[in-house]
Amino acid sequence: MARRGSRRARLAWIVALFSLVASACGGSRTLIPPGTLEPDRFLFERGTEALDERRWLTAREFFRQVTDTYTQSPFRPDAKLGIGDTYLGEGTAEALVQAINEFREFLTFYPTNPRADYAQYRLAMAYFRQMRAPQRDQTETRNALREFDAFMARYPNSPLMSEVRARHREAQDRLSSAEFEVGRHYYRIRWYPGAIDRFTALLKNDPAFSRRDTVLFHLGETLVRAGRNAEALPYFEELIAKFEDSEHLQDARKRVTDLKAQATSG
Prior knowledge:
By secondary structure, the chain is mainly α. It has helices spanning about 1-25, 40-50, 55-70, 75-90, 95-110, 115-130, 140-155, 160-190, 190-205, 210-225, 230-240, 250-265.
């Protein structure tokens, strides 16, 4: 009988413990002071404060109470964006996937909302934050570029446009750097046709590439090694004419001098 009583006491203790935990968890969803006239506003403002303080989980909990409980609230769209921002701020691989889902859902549910441009920008940034080094797979870079392109097409008058253009350039540079690395690999293993194709395509497809001078120099060098001196000369000359501060400037000048001397002697 004593043993049975002990078991009952332990069971009662466990039930009480679970009740306490459940109450505590439920309490996190009951953070509105009694008598609050606009509970949705209260929750949204507390979430915004937590977001500004980078308390991602706390902010998310406040915003979710708005979206889950006050479905007709005028704060619901902004709370949805706030949830996405908490995931973006958290920045882990898993959180960035969640951020993408939140911003996509916002654009699906609120396509004409005044902050749809912000959602599109943050969607692109969720991919941007996942971009890898030029030597690695560039799927996320391409995804970021796709979403930045969508932003520029849909929201040409957005005040976020200048920032989007800057980020787009960074992403395009990353993708172009990856293409350049492939070409340089071909150059190093002396597969010159492959290197020439890569460098030529890169110059054509991304004329604003921040390392264009490096591509010009390597294309010129590849053509020289392939015995195509006459084709190489214009690339060295373009480098000299347009990139006065290039690290390749002196080598390009020497190449031009040598190529012209060979052409004259030949």
